[in-house]
Specification:
The chain has five helices and eleven strands. By secondary structure, the protein is of the alpha+beta class.
Length: 181
């Protein structure tokens, strides 16, 4: 009897795993590969300075950017959420795929290096209008990065708080409970 119950439980779990793997957005190379590329590049290759100060890209900011602007977590509670075009399924919509996780990190670096700066106390909002060749490749025309000034033993550095695409032909926008474009 115990053997039969174990067999039924194993069969049930196998069918559950098989059915979950067939859901949209769970393709083998989609989420896991891009996410690993993004976090690996953000952790190992991110190399930006702002006004001569080091810029740190903390793990929690990487998680926020991925969860909010790729997967769409908390998009129903915010007025507007924009999405990187990395080919994910969000709220029943398959988003365009024009970039990968590595390119997201390089675009954040470019925004910090070449963007227009607006200071607001210890926070900095950087707006970057992409050149034509990047706009054409990524489908993003404008990016924003928000930094915050911090201190380590009296030495200033900047920390990435968030980074997101603002507009472009491949930037999906979810506003007030529905897709805008």
């Amino acid at each position: 009897m115990k053997r039969r119950i174990k067999y039924i439980i194993a069969l049930f779990l196998g069918l559950l795993i098989l059915s979950v793997s067939q859901l949209p957005g769970t393709e083998a190379g989609s989420l896991s590969t891009d996410y690993r590329e993004f976090t690996y590049a953000a952790t190992h290759y991110f190399d930006a300075t702002f006004y001569g100060h080091y810029v740190y890209f903390p793990y929690w900011a990487q998680e926020h950017i991925w969860d909010r602007h790729v997967l769409g977590y908390d998009m129903s509670y915010k007025h507007e959420t924009t999405f990187y075009p990395v080919g994910e399924y969000v709220a029943g919509r398959h988003l365009p795929e024009t970039m990968d996780g590595y390119e997201m990190v390089y675009l954040i670096e470019d925004t910090i290096e070449y963007g227009h700066v607006h200071f607001s106390g210890d926070r900095v909002v950087i707006t970057y209008y992409l050149p034509y060749w990047e706009y054409r490749d990524y489908g993003i025309s404008e990016m924003k990065v928000v930094l915050e000034k911090e201190y380590y033993y009296g030495h200033p550095y900047y920390e990435v708080l968030t980074a997101y695409p603002v507009s472009g032909p491949d930037v999906a926008v979810y506003e007030d409970g529905h897709w805008v474009n």
